[in-house]
Amino acid sequence: MLLDTTFVIDVQRETLRGARAGAYRFLADHLDLPMRISVITYGELAEGFAPEARDDFQELVRPYQIIALTSDMAWRFGELSRLLRSEGKRLGDNDLWIAAAALEMGVPLVTRDGMHFERVPGLSVVTY
To answer: Which CATH number fits domain 2-126: 3.40.50.1010, 3.50.50.60, 3.20.20.80, 3.10.20.90?
Structure first.
């Protein structure tokens, strides 16, 4: 599974509150599956951490395999961008990169923003 940035943010918030809610329940129910984030999500998360908090950032992303972008993902990004723009359903670039990565990997995208990503044809979206 590929985790959207919102998922990892929710894990972080649940940890800080000491309240294991939707994101933690999802992880507990899927312990047998590899959990991955794209390098795009990695960058979006890094934006929220000051340089002196890099250790905290590393701890947050440690459980997840980081997926680098490939040329096939870039091609899929371009195809999706063109299609969604022509249909008036454009996503932000970062979300489009994440969706393209999930499609190329052939894995579901886990997000709380299901309706946002459902406009991407062929993308399997899992909400929590």
So the answer is: 3.40.50.1010
pLDDT digits (tens, 9 = 90+) for 109-121: 999 999 999 999 9
Q: What are the residues whose beta carbons fall under 8 Å from the beta carbon of 79, sequence distance 6 or more? A: none
- Is residue 72 within 8 A of residue 108, CB to CB? The reply is no
CA torsion sign for 23, 29, 32, 33 is: negative
pTM of the model: 0.93
Q: Give domain limits for the chain.
A: 2-126
Q: What's the rounded Cα separation, in Å, for the pair 1 and 125?
A: 10
Mean of the per-residue pLDDT values for the chain?
96
Tens of pLDDT, residue by residue over 40-68, are 999 999 999 999 999 999 999 999 999 99
What secondary structure letter does DSSP report for 19? Answer: -
User: How far is Cα 86 from Cα 2, in angstroms, rounded to an integer?
Assistant: 26
